Task: structure prediction
Amino acid sequence: MEIIIDKIAIWKTTFHKETFTVREHPTGTRYLNEVNIYCVSDKPLYRYAKNYKVGKTEFLLFVRTFNGDKKVVEKQLDEVAKTVTESQAKKAIMATANDFEYLDKKLKGSD
Result:
């Protein structure tokens, strides 16, 4: 799937169980902006991901953004995680390697 900047996605949990991970993508990464136009980043892009659990179902939320403030991003992911239903999480864990789903949620301050 395409990288949509600042849009939060749900997926199956990762194999490593760290609670919060950050990966920096290099300058030149291709992404879709807020009006669905392909762009190439002129600065580093960050991928933040965190595992959560609703009921007995584990899931992962992640987002790709230019926001380098990991504490702010983690707090927002935590807030969105509280809104995920167990049925959404169950659907997410059935996803294939490239079959995550974007939620109708964006990072605050990115509009």
